[in-house]
Please model this.
Amino acid sequence: MIHIELPNPSERVFLTDYKSVRNKSGFYIMKNNLGEIIYIGESENIRKRLSEHYKGKSGTTKSFKQLFTYVEVFYCSPVERKIYEIYAINLFNPPGNVWGNCNMGIEELKRKREDWIRAEEEKLVEALQKPTERKAIKILDSKID
Model:
């Protein structure tokens, strides 16, 4: 695999604060509350794209949008954003990305994503059954709304 030096993030924001992101070209890395990379994308207008993810209007991430906590944003040119996105997807192999990932076949990646979504949903159900974690989740939900 070739080596490309990824730039430092231009900014890091909670997904709920997507409106603070500029309407610029670039790529982004979505992470969960543990800091694990779960999805990488690119857009001509990052703020608009993050809005789609946040509101559940993205067909790509609709089934797991509730797992996004924060996003690292990298502003760059249209050519750079495509190169960085594909490179980062293949470097980090995030469970939410299927297209652009050359680590395995499309069908295997789809199965892997579905298994990952199912496991994450089970963790959420378990957390809701614990009183202290249920309270923390309610607090997070109130901040998101």
